[in-house]
């Protein structure tokens, strides 16, 4: 028997002792024993896993890896333990740097691991870092899923990176086999509208139609609202007819969007005409619809100008449940009505 190789029983004892010392924070003793014992990758990973429970983990781990280097090569489990700890410590960019070392060691990052790091990037790092990590995943053969794209989309929109978010929706999702649907395009449309990028709203809406996606009322409301925001009231009113022909007749909410746009533009005659069209179509300006309209007018600073119009709406076609007292409460600032 060769005397430079420890018997299996001794290796097992060293393994258990290292883990026990690490769990009790005896890091100096761990370092001493680790440098004298014959280290294995299994022992290394067990030790790192035990150290994960300690705040000192990130300070101690590099020295542990250096001491193990001559005998125990890190494997995929080693990287999973280290990067998971870095993500918990809200240092996902450091976790990404570690993952980028794996191909050089002929190790492949796995799908679940990459997605966990991406989720941490989306929560704790700049959105550009998360966007760049999608490219890393593709290079490693990990195709980003729909949920991965949604997480990156959330991060980009949170930082008002609207053009980059639309690039994900219009191009990257297709390339990764996660075809975008109405929810993704609706988010892009809303973001462009809020950003005042009205030409981009038009582009995104046209792209959606070219893909064969059929807009619902929510999407039309965003598009019609964007037309009003840029002052194209004629286009917004034409779109009401387009909705009818497309099999999605405008509801009272959509009419409210156009009414608010006309008031904001100072065209009270047009606003009255659109409001009366609601009644002619047999729709009702009920409490929820009026609440939304009042909210839009108040948000634009046009509520006082529209008071007379709102009173006319109340008399001409509002649901009976909304009496004069409730109406006064509504325009006075209370958002909920009974």
From TrEMBL:
It comes from the Eukaryota. Keywords: Repeat, Transit peptide. This is Pentacotripeptide-repeat region of PRORP domain-containing protein. NCBIfam families: PPR (TIGR00756). InterPro entries: PPR-containing_protein (IPR050667), PPR_rpt (IPR002885), TPR-like_helical_dom_sf (IPR011990). PPR repeats lie at residues 110-144, 216-250, 251-285. The keyword Transit peptide applies. The keyword Transit peptide applies. Coiled coil: none annotated. Pfam families: PPR. The lineage of its organism: Eukaryota, Viridiplantae, Streptophyta, Embryophyta, Tracheophyta. Belongs to the PPR family. P subfamily. PANTHER family: MEMBRANE-ASSOCIATED SALT-INDUCIBLE PROTEIN-LIKE, OS03G0201400 PROTEIN.
